[in-house]
Amino acid sequence: MDKIVVGTRKSNLALKQAEWVIERLQAAELPYTFEMEKIVTKGDQILDVTLNKVGGKGLFVKEIEKALEDGVIDMAVHSMKDVPSALEEPFEIGAITEREDPRDVLISNGHVPFHELPAGAVVGTSSLRRSAQILAERPDVTVHWVRGNIETRLRKLREEGFDAIVLAAAGLQRMGWTNDIVTEFLDPEMCIPAVGQGALGIEIRKGDERMQDVLKHLHHEEVAKRVTAERAFLHAVEGGCQVPIGGFANLEADGQVTLNAVVGEPDGTKLLKETETGYDAEAVGKAVAERIAEAGGTAIIERVKAELNEG
Ligand SMILES: NCc1[nH]cc(CCC(=O)O)c1CC(=O)O
């Protein structure tokens, strides 16, 4: 049987995601064997610097794309939220998978819920999106950066003086840890998740019909429609590095997609939120982006980007 090589980053979460993809493809009983190829990316090597300052999301994707282009791998498994809103030539997303819980979760020492954290509590996060929304809701807490993979962040919660950390439910679920360690699932209207959070994206060489066929067995059309609206928004407001932006879409019973999105000041002093519903996912994303840009979102994004480049 022909062999298909599935590329992945080397973190435990990435390995779980790639294993999940391979299991699902094997279950489809296609005439292929599947093999995993682990790739160390720059983003995995630089764990002690705020990721925002070292080039953002693209860091995790670049080396993997090289392996794809060179034919070392045939497809690459990504967390959809780590995939830049515009892929470069000659790549495309061959499938967007079913979505895990897209919400962020709070894990606190002593299981104190978010609204009951004491004033001055130290909340760990590594994203400007989370800090903006946490501080808008609770200006009396302090946000500190906590970098590293999920295991590292949980260890730092116990050992480094944090009262709580906020991370993606999906990562915990894929690691098999879930509910007993989670204090609270944050309301996705209060803390709007990252674009694509909870879904996986499978990247392939553009026009690779063999992979397109294989990936029909993984693609989830409803999730893809939601993520399309989210990514159209992300693309229209910035198109680049990691800034305080959230976007989360749901499908209505009639098939329309509703997008809630936010651009915020990292210190939480301003949040710009907009909502739009419609049948055309791309148009919904663009409409929300236009309104947020006009309300001052562009100015915030430009300023944050400039600060990241200086820092
Ligand atoms: N930023 C890193 C990252 N990329 C994907 C996930 C979790 C899985 C997902 O959101 O799909 C995480 C960890 C986190 O944000 O807590």
TrEMBL record:
Domain Porphobilinogen deaminase N-terminal: 4-212
Biological or metabolic pathway of the protein: Porphyrin-containing compound metabolism; protoporphyrin-IX biosynthesis; coproporphyrinogen-III from 5-aminolevulinate: step 2/4
Keyword Acetylation on entry: no
Annotated ranges, domain Porphobilinogen deaminase C-terminal: 225-293
Cofactor annotation remark: Binds 1 dipyrromethane group covalently.
Cofactor: dipyrromethane
Reaction(s) catalysed by this chain's protein: 4 porphobilinogen + H2O = hydroxymethylbilane + 4 NH4(+)
PANTHER family cross-referenced by the UniProt entry: PORPHOBILINOGEN DEAMINASE
Subunit structure: Monomer.
Protein's UniProt name: Porphobilinogen deaminase
